[in-house]
TrEMBL record:
Its EC number is 3.1.-.-. GO terms for molecular function: hydrolase activity; metal ion binding; RNA endonuclease activity. Its cofactor is Mg(2+). It comes from Phascolarctobacterium succinatutens YIT 12067. This is CRISPR-associated endoribonuclease Cas2. NCBIfam families: cas2 (TIGR01573). The lineage of its organism: Bacteria, Bacillati, Bacillota, Negativicutes, Acidaminococcales. It comes from the Bacteria. Belongs to the CRISPR-associated endoribonuclease Cas2 protein family. Gene3D superfamilies: 3.30.70.240.
C-alpha cells in the first residue's frame, strides 16, 4: 500500500484572480473544509506536485500560503457542516 499523508493547506490571498486560481488548484487535490482551507490525502508525488503548482500562485509581498503535513495523527475530529470522509489507514 502506498504511503499517504494528511495535508492541510491554508491561504490568504488578496487578489480575486489569484485566489480563484488557488481554489481551482487545491480543489484538484483535496476538499474545501473552510473558506480558505483545504485538506487532502496525498502520496509523496501528489504532495510535491501540489506544492509546486500552488506556491507559484502566491505574491509573497501580500499573500500567504501555509501547508501542514500532519504527522503521527491517527484520528481526525470534525464538527459542523461539511463532508466527512472516513480514512482507513494513514501512515504519517
Amino acid at each position: 500500500m502506498e504511503r499517504k499523508f494528511i495535508v492541510l493547506m491554508i491561504y490568504d490571498i488578496v487578489d480575486n484572480k489569484r485566489r480563484n486560481k488557488m481554489v481551482k488548484c487545491l480543489e484538484a487535490y483535496g476538499v474545501r473544509v473552510q473558506k480558505s482551507a483545504f485538506e487532502a490525502l496525498l502520496n509523496r508525488r501528489q504532495y510535491e506536485k501540489m506544492l509546486r503548482e500552488s506556491s507559484i500562485l502566491i505574491d509573497e509581498a501580500v499573500d500567504s500560503l501555509r501547508v501542514y503535513v500532519l504527522d503521527d495523527i491517527i484520528d481526525v475530529y470534525t464538527w459542523g457542516i461539511g463532508e466527512r470522509k472516513e480514512i482507513d489507514c494513514v501512515i504519517l
